[in-house]
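Hi R.,

As promised on Friday, here is the backbone we talked about, encoded as structure tokens. Could you run it through your design pipeline when you get a chance and send me back a sequence?
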């Protein structure tokens, strides 16, 4: 770690849960007789003395009802629990435009949203003519992002880009055409927020792709890219795995079950 770069504090905030989910829904070729495979839903915060980045904005009550997900707290309320006022946040990275990562944009009224070119093209192009491809998108969220483009509040990226010293985005693809991961310099080294480039540890560790996918080969190659970007396999944080809340510790007792520190070594 360069002494010239201040590391980020890095947090995962758990805002929703989906308990009634089978393993067959989380792995291509998954055995329908396998046991339950629940998902947690996260947004992430990278914070240091000069910068704050929010990574993804989750979903709100309407999508929770429509998709039968358990909303535990508003994503912005989780951010506020860390002592950060969402109304003052200036930079939000949107890893991709699926409903559970790009809703509640209005909770960050001052933010500039960082998005890959290919993700906007994907979410507004011909692939959305197919119900199977558009199912994980919410048209209200996509159109809201288009409004932010016209308001000058979207910064587009094409592949790898450094947003600040020690903080960069990297287009991976696979799950969607333009999904990006985030690489963050922390006190324990380079941590990669995989988001949905790997929903679960098992997706990348066992080479078992998640079934909501634009390109399977890109998804599998993306798992290898995550390892190239991270300091080690223990420095990759998947997007939806309940094990994240077990492996990492909360910032304080009052945030038990709400947030964990990813800049500290995992317990397991």
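Update: got your reply. Pasting your designed sequence below so it's all in one thread:
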């Amino acid at each position: 770690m360069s002494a010239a770069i201040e590391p980020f504090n890095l947090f995962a905030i758990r805002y929703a849960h989906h308990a009634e989910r089978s393993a067959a829904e989380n792995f291509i070729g998954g055995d329908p007789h396998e046991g339950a495979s629940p998902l947690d839903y996260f947004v992430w915060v990278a914070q240091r003395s000069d910068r704050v980045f929010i990574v993804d904005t989750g979903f709100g009550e309407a999508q929770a009802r429509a998709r039968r997900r358990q909303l535990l707290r508003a994503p912005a309320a989780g951010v506020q629990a860390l002592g950060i006022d969402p109304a003052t946040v200036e930079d939000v990275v949107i890893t991709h435009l699926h409903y559970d990562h790009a809703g509640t944009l209005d909770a960050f009224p001052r933010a500039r949203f960082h998005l890959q070119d290919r993700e906007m093209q994907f979410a507004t192009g011909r692939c959305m003519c197919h119900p199977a491809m558009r199912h994980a998108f919410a048209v209200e969220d996509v159109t809201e992002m288009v409004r932010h483009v016209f308001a000058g509040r979207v910064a587009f990226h094409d592949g790898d880009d450094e947003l600040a010293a020690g903080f960069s985005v990297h287009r991976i693809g696979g799950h969607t055409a333009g999904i990006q991961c985030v690489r963050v310099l922390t006190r324990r080294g380079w941590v990669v927020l995989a988001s949905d480039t790997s929903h679960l540890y098992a997706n990348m560790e066992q080479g078992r792709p998640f079934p909501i996918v634009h390109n399977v080969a890109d998804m599998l190659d993306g798992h290898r890219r995550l390892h190239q970007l991270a300091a080690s396999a223990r420095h990759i944080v998947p997007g939806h795995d309940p094990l994240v809340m077990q492996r990492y510790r909360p910032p304080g007792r009052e945030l038990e079950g709400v947030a964990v520190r990813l800049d500290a070594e995992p317990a397991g």
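One thing I noticed while checking it: The mean pLDDT is 96.

Thanks again,
M.
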